[in-house]
Design goal:
By secondary structure, the chain is of the alpha/beta class. The protein contains 8 helices and 10 strands. The protein is globular and about 50 Å long.
Amino acid sequence: MDYQKQIARALLEIGAVGFKPKEPLTFKTGIISPVYVDNRIFPYHPNEWQTAISGFEDLIKENGLEFDVIAGIATGGIPHSATLGYKLKKSSVYVRKESKGHGKGKRIEGGDVENKKVLLIEDLVTTGSSALSGIKALREEGAIIEDCMVIISYGFEESRENFEKEKIKLYTLTSFPIVLQEAVAMNMITEDVKSTVEDWLSDPHGWAGRHGFEKK
């Protein structure tokens, strides 16, 4: 089994993925969704977390990624970036969602990234706004950044375009279509639920209106 399927199964087994087609929730981006992913629980499950960390290591080797510093987006990316930094003997920093209201007011914590090649780690990509905000902050501090790794992406066209605009190559351990396939194989969802989620994935902004759900 390849690591994309392994990560998908790990997400499902630890309960990091939820399906709520009849009671959708609203993301921070405003998108109404019949699914959710909570990667923050990975560190509580050491065996599955090791699978994710090993997957990141494989991605780095397979793609020949070279970097001086690993950066994690607060808060979801930090456990993974810090662990990778330790295992690979690389410097590690993290990116705050916003500047502190005191001190130097920087968003980058942990060390100097000026003229350093940085690899960014994020736990989840929806539209990419969180990761791209972090990339902007790193570049403002003089970092050289071209690559971002993430546990899972929903695979929206919008996110692909957003990363392309910033000349960032996105590497994912798995994707939501693979999670759907594994969820069906594991008898966790029906084909009807799978079809509902596939419909949402194809048009995340229009799905709610077509199904009678309104933004709260």
